[in-house]
Amino acid sequence: MPGKQLSDPCVDCGDAEAIxxxxxxxxxxxxxxxxxxxxxxxxxxxxxxxRNMPRTGPCKLLLPLSCGISSxxxxxxxxxxIQHELAKSHxxxxxxxxxxxxxxxxxxxxxxxxDEGFRLLQQTFPLHSxxxxxxxxxxxxxxxxQEVISQFxxxxxxxxxxxxxxxxxxxxxxxxxxSTSKVDVxxxxxxxxxVAFANKMACRGVLWGDSDTRLAAKTLANVAKGRxxxxxxxxxxxxxxxxVEFNFPLRDLFKAEVHNYASFFPELTRLIIPxxxxxxxxxxxxxxxxxxxxxxxxxxxxxxxGVMANVTxxxxxxxxSLVPANVLQCSFCGxxxxxxxxxxxxxxxxxxxxLELCYACNRSRPxxxx
Length: 370
Hints:
- By secondary structure, this protein is of the alpha/beta class.
- 44% of the residues lie in helices and 9% in strands.
- It is built from 16 helices and 8 strands.
- Strand 7 and strand 8 form a beta hairpin.
């Protein structure tokens, strides 16, 4: 009996109808998902095979889950790959995955509690361990932050240790003046919390769920904010200044491709907190640099995807300069201050000894307008 005639067969397998166009190629659902899986698989090969690392003993990796599409898709893909590896008679050494959820309601105003979503996460991905913590737990995990924030805002903020950790952090975040500075400070706080938790759990690396689109926007925004020297670890795979490896397994995938993958799996849509659609009525001056760059990359990426991809590829070729042993690190964001002017020499002023801030963090302080 002749096979079923296909009106638009998948160019990869030829056995099913193509439902989506992926970079000029019409693919079926199965082949589309295989493409996404392969991109992540190649990026995780060093950990899967334990290249340049001990092949025995634990290799724990931390996945910070923002409950957005990209990090949720990354968890789904890695879970499928780990399941496939465990089914082999002689699996590779592989890695263990620990998922960290920073309670969304503690980060974003108006965000609902993630109680039900967290329960579904644990049911959907039973192979992995999960932890959910609020943003203000940073005081417990990173005690050094207390001294930093007490000086960061100068006269604009007074840290009242008699308040709860939540109220203290809320007061500090409220003292940051501009929209760009607020987003920048929140990003630093989240990074510090993730790193502190990774160190507590003895994780070798952190797997960030940033797509190519997100990395391109972050590259442009960081350069505009004066954080260009941090690109070697904020958008590139490798060692961070915190002694923990940063990796971006979705870096070869556009956000639209991640969206399409998520639409294939109903269990994912139940876990994801959808992004709020950008408002067309917001004045540009009221948007942060990060939001502006994300809008720019998303709109231009639809027209010129290759150009936006080149932004990330070019940034990924950057190599960190050799850092002298005595070079200063920013007290707030942790970046190396290679151009601080004193080349790591001891500073004679009491104020600078107490708080060393890089150029970008200085711009985010309340008394400095961006």
